[in-house]
Amino acid sequence: MPEMAKQADPRRWKALIFIALAQLMVVLDATIVNIALPSAQESLHISEGNKQWVITAYALAFGGLLLFGGRLADLWGRRQTFIIGLLGFAAASALGGAAVNTGMLLGARALQGVFGALLAPAALSLLAVMFTDPKERAKAFGVFGAIAGGGGAVGLILGGVLTEYMDWRWTFYVNIPFAAVAVAGAIMVITEPSDSRNPSKLDIPGVVLATTGLVSLVYGFTRAEEDGWTAGATIGLFIAAVVLLAAFVVVEGRVKNPLLPLRVLTERNRAGVYMSLGLAVIGMFGLFLFLTYYLQIVKDYSPVTTGLAFLPMIATMITGSTQIGARLMTRVPPRLLMGPGFLVAALGMGLLTQLDTDSSYVGLILPAMLLLGLGMGTAFMPAMSLATHGVQPRDAGIASAMVNTSQQVGGAIGTALLNTIAASATTEYFKDHAQGATSAKSLQLTALVEGYTTAITWAVVILLVASAIAFTFVNTGPQSGHGAAATGDGAEDDVPVPVMAH
């Protein structure tokens, strides 16, 4: 323990501020542009067919390149990758804010995704190698988990304020000061252990297979939402994704220096984290997507009011992450935080299945949000920490990238799957009740709510599955620091070097 104390970076808590700021920028960017999209579409005369590409261009680049970005962080060093990611993200945001046509905006969004794929795993892996004391690690990941879970809701609020009171372009420009502060902080206070890099040669076949496979998977779900699940293009993309990712796994088991060492995936606790987090994000997207639609379309809330309506959820998410998850992580097994956390979130989501056109915000929506935030905050925090707990420092970047990949793929699945379910239920309800309707407007709103509640019901089931996976797969004890044993890693190859010794 004295050796660990001597190794601890005295500026690590200051570094956390700037790492958290960068993570907030990446996470809120996933939702902030959604609010501004109608205004941007009108301003730049973006066609209906191209509108979805404002979201998809970012998702494809970000999701497809995350594993590559995580490996580059291990190769180049997390601090350097972090700074490059920040500078590139800021430049891409400036380009997006200055866009004069559709092509320029879509190109900027793709570039944001590229640099986000560098930035996100670098940020998480910096925490993994800088915070080695179990109690300090719990606090650091408590902050990070709260941001990862609540950043999307912050994006809704900020996007609403900027769009309503300034201009849609500021949803891009706002990233520039975020990035400038984070870069300055990174240069001044962020360091990383000198022996935590992975200088092995880059696995080019793995990079190509992983990137094309993930792009095919994410784009397949996007096409499913647009064209339907049985469309030829949709099925073709899914088949391509399965073939490419299967080939990737085979290659990774054979090459000397794999992009994604299979030891990162085969450890049951990390596998449980990746699966349960991916599923939980599907549920979260269900909440953001349909509750945003419900409040703006059915309840006629303004963008700002809609954003503010999510504030209580952010408060309980921060509480769950920093006051429950962080305090208990070193005392109780992670499954006893993750499993119940997802169950509480499912209970909150379950309340929203009772929505109708005149539901009360205070009576129904607020209690549901409070439960959702508390449950997700409690579960996300130990999950984020466990995903990188016990890995070798040279694998920290790629292990962190897998966390982001599971969330990104979960988000793509959630958007496509739940939107399709909602649209089908809305259409069915409209057909079944069209003849007896006294008001077309009332029927339309009721049909929309029927679609939302049907999709939310599926989100409840998905959260219950996430909870079951957490209870079943995650079998490690409290993250109190016993090296590889703490994560159940039995293989000698997975024993951390001293810098990660907890």
From TrEMBL:
<feature type="transmembrane region" description="Helical">
    <location>
        <begin position="361"/>
        <end position="384"/>
    </location>
</feature>
<dbReference type="InterPro" id="IPR011701">
    <property type="entry name" value="MFS"/>
</dbReference>
<keyword id="KW-1133">Transmembrane helix</keyword>
<feature type="transmembrane region" description="Helical">
    <location>
        <begin position="202"/>
        <end position="222"/>
    </location>
</feature>
<feature type="transmembrane region" description="Helical">
    <location>
        <begin position="82"/>
        <end position="104"/>
    </location>
</feature>
<dbReference type="InterPro" id="IPR036259">
    <property type="entry name" value="MFS_trans_sf"/>
</dbReference>
<dbReference type="GO" id="GO:0022857">
    <property type="term" value="F:transmembrane transporter activity"/>
</dbReference>
<keyword id="KW-0046">Antibiotic resistance</keyword>
<keyword id="KW-0472">Membrane</keyword>
<keyword id="KW-0812">Transmembrane</keyword>
<feature type="transmembrane region" description="Helical">
    <location>
        <begin position="110"/>
        <end position="129"/>
    </location>
</feature>
<dbReference type="InterPro" id="IPR004638">
    <property type="entry name" value="EmrB-like"/>
</dbReference>
<dbReference type="InterPro" id="IPR005829">
    <property type="entry name" value="Sugar_transporter_CS"/>
</dbReference>
<feature type="transmembrane region" description="Helical">
    <location>
        <begin position="53"/>
        <end position="70"/>
    </location>
</feature>
<protein>
    <submittedName>
        <fullName>MFS transporter</fullName>
    </submittedName>
</protein>
<keyword id="KW-1003">Cell membrane</keyword>
<keyword id="KW-0813">Transport</keyword>
<feature type="transmembrane region" description="Helical">
    <location>
        <begin position="272"/>
        <end position="295"/>
    </location>
</feature>
<feature type="transmembrane region" description="Helical">
    <location>
        <begin position="141"/>
        <end position="162"/>
    </location>
</feature>
<dbReference type="GO" id="GO:0005886">
    <property type="term" value="C:plasma membrane"/>
</dbReference>
<feature type="transmembrane region" description="Helical">
    <location>
        <begin position="228"/>
        <end position="251"/>
    </location>
</feature>
<feature type="transmembrane region" description="Helical">
    <location>
        <begin position="301"/>
        <end position="324"/>
    </location>
</feature>
<dbReference type="GO" id="GO:0046677">
    <property type="term" value="P:response to antibiotic"/>
</dbReference>
<dbReference type="InterPro" id="IPR020846">
    <property type="entry name" value="MFS_dom"/>
</dbReference>
<dbReference type="Pfam" id="PF07690">
    <property type="entry name" value="MFS_1"/>
</dbReference>
<feature type="transmembrane region" description="Helical">
    <location>
        <begin position="451"/>
        <end position="474"/>
    </location>
</feature>
<feature type="transmembrane region" description="Helical">
    <location>
        <begin position="168"/>
        <end position="190"/>
    </location>
</feature>
<feature type="transmembrane region" description="Helical">
    <location>
        <begin position="336"/>
        <end position="355"/>
    </location>
</feature>
<feature type="region of interest" description="Disordered">
    <location>
        <begin position="482"/>
        <end position="502"/>
    </location>
</feature>
<feature type="transmembrane region" description="Helical">
    <location>
        <begin position="12"/>
        <end position="33"/>
    </location>
</feature>
<feature type="domain" description="Major facilitator superfamily (MFS) profile">
    <location>
        <begin position="15"/>
        <end position="479"/>
    </location>
</feature>
